[in-house]
Predict the 3D structure of the following.
Amino acid sequence: MGVQTLPADCSQEDILAVLEADGAVIVANLINADQVRQMVDQVTPYIDQTPMGRDDFSGRHTQRTGALVARTPACHELILHPSILSCAKRFLEPFTEKILLHLTQTIHINPGNPAQPLHRDRLAWGTHIPKNIEPQFNTIWALTDFTRENGATRCVPGSHKWDWQQRAEADQIVQAEMSAGSVFIYTGSVLHSGGENRSDKARMGLNLTYTLGWLRQEENQYLSCPPHIARTLDPDLQDLLGYTQGNYALGYYSDPEAQHSESDILPPERVLGRMPTKGSSLASTTDDSVDFASIEQI
């Protein structure tokens, strides 16, 4: 059994159904060659300056380059891709009011890098999140063809439903072979890893992942994309970075330099020169408009 591949015109229901069954799916050729080339052209100068990984997990012959929202405008379109973003929201919405951009990173696996150990991305938070809560919706966009020889992502379909102590047998591990412009979608609970690059060329993937609005992001987006850069972005992208409140009182800030302020409880949008949509933040509501019954009392 390999990773199922769906056509670019598949429905949200198709993607989510395969994710539910297998924990991973490929959507073929979702972006065109010009979009791939633009992303590669913009990120390559940064990859060239990125050191190799410091251990076997990050890859001693692998370069992982982040801060892509600030560095590569071409990735904005992929982060906000309607098919992907709508699926991410539907997949995560049982557990959150809003979702966040968790990670932006190109993974450049150079020749000679062995296969990464199989792992579950959700363990970035340890084992503290109950197993019935899925914290992530993850994507790896192929910026080169992904083949068995050059390190196509390894995956164990169905392992998102296993006991966490269960180990994969060799015949259960498959690779997400796909053409450049395709995207590998996988959950935070499925076993996966980078593959061994036995070819003479690097394999480049773009890892864009989404998480629950009440969890800490793996990539600190406020430092990777600080306000003076974030204020130039699409509001939807600003919100995904975290420049909005997750729900009542979650994510507000106080201006440390203000001498006088109408409030010390400010919505994050304010630092970008915009106001939140009505009812989306503590600062934009009155006591009469807040549904306090929905807020758990501690």
